C-alpha cells in the first residue's frame, strides 16, 4: 500500500506520542554586588533609571536569549551596603532573589561578586548552607533563618551547574588580561558572595527537571577581581555569557519541524520553547 505524505504524518502523530512541551523561558539572570560587578552588568539592566543608555539584553547578539541584570548602587554614604536591588545584606538579598526569580523564571543564572586583588575570574564550584556566616553591616547581622535552606542539613554543599571549564577556557583564550580559574576545593568565603551563590544553585536544584515550566539549565557564581578594569570585566562578562549560551543551547532542544516517518522510524528534530 502506498502511503501519501499526509497519511504518514497522521500515522506518526497517532502512533508515536509527541514529546512533552516544556514552557521554560529564554531569560538569563545575572547579578552583581560591589564594583566592578555592578558596573559590568549595568548594560543588561532594563531599568532606565539604572541604565539610561538603554537595555542591550533583548535577544542579545541575536543568540535567542534575553539577559536581565540586577545590582545595587553605591551613592555617597551607602558604602559598603549599597541601596536598591541586592543590597549587601542577608535579608535584602534573599528577599530580592526570590522576588526576582519568580518574575524572570531564568533558564540560567550567574551571580557575580567582587573577589581577590589579583586579576582573577574565579568560578566557584561549591557553596554551603551555613548555620553561621560573617556578619553583614546592619542588624540582624546574620541570615534569618540560618542556615537559609531548611530542606537540607547545615553545611550541605550545592554545586555549580555552570559550564565551568568552558567559561574558564573561553575567557583565557581571549587574552584580555583576565585569568580565569575554577575553585574546585574552596568555598565562597562565608559572606554575601557565598550566600547569593548558594541561592542561585539552590534555585537550579529546585528547577533542574526539564519538564518544569521554570526549568533552569545552569546556575553558579563567579568572583571578579577588584583590580580588573571595567573594560576587562565587561569583556569577560560577555565571553562568559557566550559560553553559557553555547552550553544552554546544547541542553535545550530546538523548535521541531514536521514529524517524518520513514520505514517505521520516526525522526524528530529537537525543539526549544521560547517565550
Describe the structure.
With 275 residues, this protein is an alpha/beta fold. The protein has two domains: 1-19 and 260-275, no CATH class; 25-252, 3-Layer(aba) Sandwich (Aminopeptidase), CATH 3.40.630. Helices cover 28% and strands 17% of the residues. The protein is built from six helices and ten strands. The strands form three sheets. It has a six-stranded mixed sheet with strand order 2-1-3-8-4-7, with helices on both faces. Strand 9 and strand 10 (265-267) form a beta hairpin. Helix 3 packs parallel to helix 5.
The helix fraction, in percent, is 25-40%
Which runs of at least 5 residues are low in confidence (pLDDT < 50)? Answer: 1-21, 255-275
Q: What is the level 1 CATH name of the largest domain?
A: Alpha Beta
Sheet/helix structural class: alpha/beta
Name the helix and strand elements from N-terminus to C-terminus, one letter apiece: HEHEHEEEEHEHEHEE
Total count of helical runs of at least 4 residues: 6
Overall geometry comes to globular
- Please state the average pLDDT score: 87
Describe the protein's topology.
Blueprint: H1 5-15, E1 27-31, H2 37-40, E2 66-70, H3 90-104, E3 108-114, E4 120-124, E5 126-128, E6 157-159, H4 164-173, E7 179-183, H5 192-206, E8 218-224, H6 230-251, E9 260-262, E10 265-267
Parallel strand pairs: 1-2, 1-3, 3-8, 4-7
Antiparallel strand pairs: 4-8, 5-6, 9-10
Helix pairs in contact: 3-5, 4-6
